TrEMBL record:
Domain of life (superkingdom): Bacteria
Alphabetical list of InterPro entries matching this protein: RmlC-like_jellyroll (IPR014710), RmlC_Cupin_sf (IPR011051)
Name used for this protein in its record: Cupin domain protein
């Protein structure tokens, strides 16, 4: 993921020719990933029960309910800024699928 400056803390856990696995940690309410566009399909695995706000641009924001351990998939091209909407520290693991689709 190519990310603009945000306050969430990315920690690369695995990086090879097939996948990029990053933990995104949000220490407090309002921490964010920074505006970015996903260059690959990806899977997110929340590590908490709670809510994230997703800034889609043009003033549009949505709320996404997260459940610990329940993954979700998104396709290449998603553009957004992900924001912690909780009053507690939270994190998710993002797995980017670097191999092109066949």
């Amino acid at each position: 993921m190519c990310s603009a400056t945000g306050t969430a803390i990315p920690t690369v856990m695995i990086q090879n020719e097939r996948v990029l696995v990053t933990e995104w940690r949000f220490k407090k309410r309002g921490d964010n990933t920074g505006w970015h566009r996903h260059a690959y399909d990806y899977v997110v695995i929340p590590q908490f029960d709670g809510v994230l706000e997703i800034d889609l641009g043009n003033g549009e924001r949505i709320t996404a309910q997260m459940q610990s351990g329940v993954p979700y998939f998104r396709e290449i091209g998603v553009e957004h800024d992900v924001i912690n909407a909780n009053d507690f520290e939270c994190a998710f693991v993002e797995v980017e699928l670097l191999e092109p689709r066949k």
